[in-house]
TrEMBL record:
GO terms for molecular function: 3-hydroxybutyrate dehydrogenase activity. This is 3-hydroxybutyrate dehydrogenase. PROSITE patterns: ADH_SHORT. Belongs to the short-chain dehydrogenases/reductases (SDR) family. Gene3D superfamilies: NAD(P)-binding Rossmann-like Domain. It comes from the Bacteria. GO terms for biological process: monocarboxylic acid metabolic process.
Amino acid sequence: MTTKILHGKRAIVTGSNSGIGLGIAEELAAAGAEVVLNSFTDRDEDHALAAELAQRHGVAVRYIKADMSKGDECRALIEQSGGCDILVNNAGIQHVAKLEEFPAEKWDAIIAINMSSAFHCTAAALPAMYQAGWGRVINVASAHGLTASPFKSAYVAAKHGVVGLTKVTGLEAAGSGVTCNAICPGYVLTPIVEKQIPDQMKTHNMDRETVIKEVMLSRQPSGEFATTEQVGGIAVFLCSGAADQITGTTISVDGGWTAL
């Protein structure tokens, strides 16, 4: 059982109504942090999700709609949250296409949501963190922030940019009590990934286990997905006192992918 080491802290997690973002929010709440969930929708189920998280962990949880493709909404999210001790820049989208065929509007959207939102949210959150003398900025990058794959030009460019932003933020904040680090997951078993498995089984005429190991995890030497709980656990660690001198760097959760 996670101890309440983050009691009294407020965490904002962008893009957190599913997948990795929700997994991180879950672990931060379990560690005692108040949590602000976020996405671009404003559905009853979004607010119900926040209520369920609050009830499960006995902490305050709110859902705030903000479109991470728009810089002013990114900054407004920080203001509307009423305080931010821990900022997790997680929002992201993907599109796969050859470079010469990559739609310009998809490029712009991926750069805005995956990279520029981290800049806007961080810029808005840092002043209060500096004033408090404590803060944590955690950027969810990717193995693709450290290496590349074909047909993912915008995603790879954005995630490399997030890693660069992490280094700059860590250097600027050094000695202030504020740290900034990037978590770089490989393939994580999220609901979106889970839904892809049956289609891959049909496409390749393979059983589930073979599809996972030979198709989906062909670049992940462990042959296993990372989990959202594991990524969330790294986020909690980065918020702990043990990580006070870890800043401006990356932590890979990729089963050995980037060791190749």
